[in-house]
Amino acid sequence: xxxxxxxxxxxxxxxxxxxxxxxxxxxxxxxxxxxxxxxxVVDTVxxxxxxxxxxxxxxxxxxxxxxAVPLIGTTSSGNGAGPDAPGLVYAGFSLGGALAQNLxxxxxxxxxxxxxxxxxxxxxxxxxxxxxxxxxxEPDPFETEDWLNAWYLRMRRAGADVExxxxxxxxxxxxxxxxxxxxxxAAAQAWAAALDFLADIDADA
Length: 205
Prior knowledge:
single chain, 205 residues, Rossmann fold, 40% helix
């Protein structure tokens, strides 16, 4: 069983995010899904980015950290388990993926990083051995080819074990069935690979 912190995109905690959490739970994982938008959910990227800008990136990261801290070194029952507790797998969609990456690179106990549709910049002195899996549309206006190439090289330089899955012709948020970006075939492939990735992390524990 992996212990997963799953962070939503700029659209908020949409039904697709809750369904993703249920999918992961059905596979035997413990999943925590904080609401970084205080209940606000939108249907367009423009509305979502307006909320993101209103709250601010630093505050969103602070909220994500606040959600993660109580889970580090605790059991699923909430009891303190000290340094022997299994580390978290950080996961997220688009904006949530960027936040998840920041958290994982700052957490020496992180067990994995699962990214859908989004990445974040990487500090030159970053160091991590965390396994990373990224699922991204090809092309993606928010994750360009040049950006992804640089991101991959910097993650590898930091020590991460990285794999990238690209889905030609899919929309940016192709895993959300209620958005125009949805691509059912790409989503099915992404989830199959993601569940295998988590199973491997669980097996290595």
